[in-house]
Design goal:
Tyrosyl-Transfer RNA Synthetase; alpha/beta; 18 helices; 3 domains; five-stranded mixed sheet; 416 residues; Rossmann fold; six-stranded mixed sheet; Structural Genomics Hypothetical 15.5 Kd Protein In mrcA-pckA Intergenic Region, Chain A
Length: 416
Amino acid sequence: MTPKSSFIQEAQARGFIFQTTDLENLDELMAKGYISGYVGFDPTADSLHVGSLVQLMLLRLLQKHGHQPIALLGGGTAQIGDPSFREEARSLMSQEIIDRNLAGISKNIHQILQLGLDENKTFTVDNADWLKKLSYIELLRDVGIHFSINRMLSFDSVKTRLEREQGLSFLEFNYSILQSYDFRELNRRYGTVLQMGGADQWGNIVSGVELVRRMEGKQVFGMTAPLLTTSSGAKMGKTAKGAVWLNADKYSIFDFWQFWRNTEDQDVGRFLKLFTDLSIEECKRLAALQGAEINEAKKILATEVTTICHGRSAAEVAKKAAQDIFEKGKLVHEGLPKITLPIQELQSDLPAFRLFVLSKLVNSNAEARRLIRGGGARINDEKLADESQIINIDYLKDGIIKLSSGRKNHMLIRFQ
C-alpha cells in the first residue's frame, strides 16, 4: 500500500508503525483532512523516561501534519495500575503521589508538544475527569456487557502473567475495560478516532476500538509503535544508573546528552528518524557516515534529542561541556550535573571512597573502593590512587570539587 496521507507516509518512513487495525481506511481518512488522535500516559513516576519518547514523538508528528494530538493523563487508571507484561501488581499510589506525578509528566509533555502553540488545540486531559464519576453498576451494565472474558484471557499481556503463576487481581483485570472506556469518552467529547501506544498496549487498544464500534456504531483506529531495544539487545532507556528520565532533576541534561552520544553505531540512523525532527534524507546521510565520522552523527543526534526534551540552549551547553571534557581535557563546571553538600563534610576526616558514595556516582562503599583500585576514579581530573585518601578544603576550586567515574560519568560537588 502506498500511503496518501502525509502523516502515514512519514510515520512509515521513520519506523513508527508496528501494528494498525485498518491502515488503509485510516490513511484515507487522514488524507481527507483533520483528525484527532491520542496516547495515554499513566503517572507511575514524577517524570516520563526515554521509553515514552517514541509515543511522544508520534504525537509530535501528528501535530506537525496538521492533526490534533491529545495526551491523555491517567489520573484515574493510575489508581489501578496497568498490569501489561508485569511480573507482579503495581503498588497502589495515594492521591497525593498521583497528583505529584501528574504535575511532573505534564511538564515533559508540554516541553515536547509545545501545547497551546498550534492552531489545532493540542492539549492534555485527565481520565479521572470521567472515570471517577462512573458508578460500578453503570460500568457493568453499559460497558462490561461488551467484553468477553475468553478474549481478554487471550491477550499476551494477560497470558504472560498467568503463565508465570503470578496471578492477576480482579482490580488489574479491570484496567483494560477502563482504558477502552477512555477511547469511547474521547470519541464522544472530541471526536477522537485514533489511539496510539507501544506494542505492549495492542490488546488494550483493540479493545477500545471494538468498544467504540459497539457502543457508538463508529469506526475508530488503533496504531502501535515498536518496543525498542538497542542493537545489542538492551532495553531502550536503561543504563547502569537506571532509567533515563526526561526530567532534568532526575537525570541531568549533561548525562541525557551523553546517553544519546553513546548510541551504538548500528542504531544511529534508526534513532535519528525516531527521535529528531531532521529530514529523513538528512537522517540517512548521517547514518551512512563511516569510521570516526559516525561520532559527528552521534553528536547531532544527542543535540537534537536534547533540544526537543530540554530546549536548544540547554542542549548546546551540554554539548560544549562534553567537548571541553572529552576533546579538550578541560576542567569545566557549566553543563555538568551538580549536587550540594555541607562544608562540614570536608572539615572531618572524609576518605575519598566516601565522597564518591555521597556524590551518588556509585551506590556503595565497596563499589567506590573497586572503582578507585581499578584506576577509574579522578578528583579534579587527577587520577585517584588511594581509596582512603583524605579529602579536605584544599581540594576546592571555586567552592567545587569535580569527581569522575571513568571517562563519561562526572559530578560537581558544591560545598557550602
